[in-house]
Design brief:
By secondary structure, the chain is mostly helical. It is built from 21 helices and two strands.
Length: about 450
Amino acid sequence: MQKIEWIVYTWNQLVWGKYTVCFLLFSGVWFWFKNRSLLISHPLLILKGSLYAMSGEKGRQTRKDFYTALAGTLGIGSIVGVASAIVLGGPGALIWMLVSGGLGMALKYAETSLACAYQVRSGSGWIGGTMILLGNVRNRVFLSVCFSLCCLFAAFGVGAMAPSAAICTSLQSLFHCERWIGAAVVVSAVLVVLVGKTHRLQQVNAGLLPLVCAAYIGLCIWILVLSRHRLGTLLFAAWNAAFSLQAAGGGIGGHLLSSAMRYGLTRGLFSHEAGMGSAPLAYASHRCEEPAEQGFLGMLEVFFDSFGITLLSGLVFLCAWEKIPVQTVDGTLLMSSVFTLYFGSVGGCLFSIMMILFAFPTILGWYYYADQCLTYLFRGSLPKIVYLFFFLGSLAGGGIFHVSLVWAFSDLFNGCMLIINLFTLWSFQKESIWIGKDYLDRHDLNKCSAKG
């Protein structure tokens, strides 16, 4: 096991080196700049387009896809990830997670709109994403296969082991059972859903996610109300830790990047997944008439995740950080201690239940991504059956392996997807700009009235 950990951590250092992080930051700034005429100048048009895309009977499938994509981002990264990031990187990690989310909104818009603009027929459905852009449009089949394989392996980490570990920890807190029993429960529950048709997967996500989000946000707001006199001080401390001369100097002298920046950006990516190319697989799985509007939904997804759930979770954890014993990097245990501090044993139980309800849709959402890649790579049902077997095995492993190793696996696979997807976005930047300008020309009321 120690050799496996050494290999994973070594590759993690290589994949998440200074060049990858700088490339991610620069890409976010660049795509905001290149699409500024739409994304910055017309926020009301973006909001209107998002609401229209999900409205009425025509938006039913869009709503399901939105919840599926949201399920892949909320919960584990934005709750558990922010707690572990703060413990490992200090309070400044929260600021860098927000920076990652802000930059990621432009990346999510670009990758989602491109995936929907170049989607293709696949049997009775549709498929789109980085593998289609690389393989079908640019004829770079090798890279398209590499991305698909990276997504399949990433689903083992971020989509299976990490949420399974969180569920097992929660079940252990609730029922004081062994972790292997919790892993068996997770595998059984997921198998019941996945052996059915794909629409059952989306229906479960659409039913669970809104309810658990509302409950979690309500409890977090109540904690912040109780601690309102400390919020200003905590935010100033986090900002100072993120951008202090000491952090900058330590980064340049050592690894160029401070711990706050590194863990904030990696956990931020884990949370909102912007730049990885995963969520567009869900948005492009049905016929899209307005690719730009699907991109708006991607931006809304990142905004809600980063400046909603992640920010609330980070502030709540900072409020209680000095009052709870920090003896682990397991974010599930840390956040459970926070809720126990404010609401007693009932609070700890409530958090464990909410964590289970957050993590379960994450598993389903990521399996949906993997299924899209399997559809692109293979024909027939045998490869999907084999993959399901390994996916269930990774769920079991998530409940057994050490939590830090699970996070390391997740970060590694996320980074591999990120590098290929960012390369794809840069090669399609002209097409991304054209999609936005075309939508703006057809929907900008000021331009339409001037032409009239």
